[in-house]
Amino acid sequence: MDNSLGFTPLDGLMMGTRCGSIDPAIVVYMIERLGMTPAEAENTMNRKSGLLGVAGLTNDLRDVRVAAEGGNERAILAYEMYSNSIKRFIGQYAFEMGGLDAIVFCGGVGENDPRTRKMALSNLEDLGIVLDDDLNAVFGGERSLAAESSKVALLVIPTNEELMIAQDVSTLCDS
What we know:
mainly alpha
């Protein structure tokens, strides 16, 4: 139905080094006012933005979290921007689909970062989303994070990208 990427992975969610959705006029500003070439602007948006650009430290959310917990203001801002970008898509999709049955967290951050999940799901009770803080603190395996009062299932499902790639390759080779 929809996804968080646009023509390229630059659109959508803020990532480790990618800016995510931005005002298109920023590109013109980078070229005209900062004197960047189009290639330099593209490189900055793909490889020097996102968590790395905002926090000014690293593109690894684990390190940004530690810095944020230590009071680093840029890391706090990066963490909040990252979580809010997830929250915006949850809200957008909830309205596009007329409600949600489930929210599934997977991948490194989704599986292993309770703080990001909590920040991304906070204040969404009006959408039927209620996180159980104790369940959110549990690590490992498939699990529910939803409070009993949640109308939306909140799940962690570990990914196995290597297995999926191997299965896709096998399917393509058998074709």
